[in-house]
Design goal:
Elements: E1 5-7, H1 17-23, E2 32-34, H2 44-47, H3 52-63, H4 69-79, E3 92-95, E4 98-102, H5 113-116, H6 119-129, E5 135-141, H7 146-154, E6 160-167, H8 173-180, E7 187-192, H9 196-207, H10 210-218, E8 221-224, H11 231-250, E9 260-265, H12 270-281, E10 285-292, H13 297-304, E11 306-308, H14 329-336, H15 341-354, E12 356-358, H16 361-365, E13 370-374, H17 377-391, H18 397-413, E14 419-423, H19 431-438, H20 447-458, H21 464-469, E15 478-480, H22 485-493
Parallel strand pairs: 4-14, 5-6, 5-8, 6-7, 7-15, 9-10, 9-14, 10-13
Antiparallel strand pairs: 1-2, 3-4, 11-12
Helix pairs in contact: 1-6, 3-4, 3-11, 11-12, 17-18, 17-19, 19-20
Length: about 500
């Protein structure tokens, strides 16, 4: 099968997987979706004995059909290697009555490594396949984790340049240090005087700026994206849900075909959308539980069928979820509308102009795979404290939001299916928030002392990624207002 990708907004011919990876965003502003969702290519019984790399190959070859077996296996081998601090890549930890899928063992200690370790390799192969002569500019907005993972993935990759925008004051100190100390002759990091939504909207506007595209073309550049809107990010994320099910089966925690639930701390909606695609492939998932923090735009959407970003933006202790425009939700909207590109385009137009849209009753009925909940900072902190007190297990602030929502869902619904909670970041990335949740007395410690204390409290090794940045030189000091992003990009690229 030669799977192709089409825009959610319906214009233009379908493209190959490698073309979709290169473009990032469709020319009409839509997101690329597969023309069909392939079925699981192996039985669950076979799946349970596969390594992470083997699972990645069997899933990704179904979606990336114009990559050869040799190309795909080479990309996977380069991505999932000794840069991860555990051989199994994505371990499952059983804690109380749930299974935590730890996706933070990569080079930047966040789940974004799972896809951004492989995206640069997929992209360079795609450029070669499509005879691209221009240098590729990876343009990315980050709420904290994507930025560092993308920078680490693309640093010094030949034929690329990466520019990351992050909200000044809107990320944790470790997240900031990870970005501003990033080495690489082709890397640039810019703090914008605004929030993540302004950074993300600014990046999308640059992608849609035809005049800028022409100027870049003249100078030998073209844009692509490392954000979760790129299908080269989304497809590798499907892998870990399939892998987790196989490991539960191998460990005899479930029986073959038994349905599980999945709880995902959610901001831009890419991670939970990957779980939805895994379910569409035939993975036995019952409920997809969408966990939000106080920026609960997704929770409200699932309750009411109305998406409304016109609300106060709350800075929380789970900053990667501090998002009011969840870009990947568009792919789900397209799906529940019956793949009606006009409807999707109209709703996205309303979001752009009014900041809100309402789906039809029929579309809302198509959301039955999902449940939703939210947790306040106080509730997430209490979850960190109580689970640590009961078990000694330490989790980060985003995982705690998911764990809190899971507890509420299980209590309120009576649904006792076994549940995988997606653990998206190392607690070391948010040491201050984690430790003050465990004991407020730790709040007065300096950053380095916090890290040492977390090591002592958790009994886990301090990740290399944290040790490396604490005394590293600050290399990126550039800042700009949201309306200065275009000029900043042109200045970095030397485009007159």
């Amino acid at each position: 099968m030669n799977l192709r990708y089409k825009s959610t907004r319906g214009t233009g011919e379908p493209v190959t997987a490698s073309q979709a990876v290169l473009k990032g965003l469709a020319e009409d502003g839509g997101l690329y979706v597969p023309t069909e969702i392939p079925k699981l290519p192996v039985s669950l019984d076979v799946l349970k004995d596969m390594s992470y790399q083997e699972t990645a190959f069997v899933i990704m070859k179904e979606f990336l059909t114009d990559y050869t077996e040799e190309e795909l296996k080479d990309c996977i081998a380069k991505a999932y290697d000794s840069r991860f601090d555990t051989e199994v890549i994505a371990p499952l930890a059983k804690v109380e009555d749930a299974y935590y899928l730890e996706l933070f063992h990569g080079p930047t200690i966040a789940f974004k490594d799972m896809a951004l370790s492989i995206l640069p390799h997929l992209m360079t192969v795609a450029a070669r396949k499509n005879q691209v002569k221009n240098k590729i500019v990876i343009l990315t907005a980050t709420s904290g984790d994507t930025g560092k993972a993308a920078l680490a993935g693309f640093a010094d990759v030949e034929g690329t340049r990466i520019i990351v925008f992050y909200p000044k004051g809107g990320v944790s100190e470790i997240q900031r240090l990870q970005m501003v100390t990033q080495k690489g002759d082709n890397t640039s990091v810019v703090a914008i005087h605004g929030n993540f939504d302004q950074a993300q909207s600014g990046v999308k506007a640059l992608f849609e700026d035809k005049e800028l595209a022409a100027e870049l073309e003249q100078s030998g550049w073209q844009f692509s994206s490392a954000n979760s809107i790129n299908i080269g990010r989304l497809v590798p994320q499907i892998v870990y849900y399939v892998y987790a099910y196989g490991k539960l089966l191998q460990n005899e925690e479930i029986t073959e075909g038994e349905e599980i639930n999945v709880t995902v701390p959610t901001g831009n909606f890419g991670n939970i959308l990957a779980a939805f695609y895994a379910k569409q492939m035939g993975l036995p998932i019952a409920k997809l539980i969408c966990a939000s923090n106080e920026n609960k735009v997704l929770y409200d959407f699932f309750q009411s069928g109305v998406y409304d970003k016109n609300r106060d933006f709350v800075l929380t202790a789970s900053p990667s979820m501090d998002i009011l425009i969840s870009s990947n939700l568009e792919r789900l909207i397209y799906r529940i509308s019956g793949e009606d590109a006009r409807k999707d385009s109209d709703l996205m137009g309303e979001l752009r102009t009014k900041g809100t849209y309402a789906i039809t009753g029929e579309m809302k009925a198509n959301l039955s795979d999902f449940a939703a909940g939210y947790a306040t900072g106080e509730q997430a902190g209490e979850t960190i404290r109580s689970i640590y007190g009961n078990t000694g297990y330490v989790m980060d602030t985003h995982t705690a939001v998911a764990a809190s929502v899971y507890r509420d869902y299980r209590r309120d619904s009576g649904d006792t299916r076994k549940t995988v909670i997606v653990s998206t970041a190392s607690p070391y990335k948010f040491a201050r928030s984690v430790l003050t949740a465990i004991d407020p007395a730790y709040g007065g410690l300096e950053e380095e002392a916090l890290i040492e204390k977390l090591h002592e409290v958790s009994g886990t090794e301090i990740p290399r990624a944290v040790k490396d940045v604490l005394h590293a030189e600050i290399l990126h000091k550039r800042e700009c207002p949201p309306d200065g992003m275009k000029e900043t990009v042109k200045e970095i690229l030397g485009v007159k």
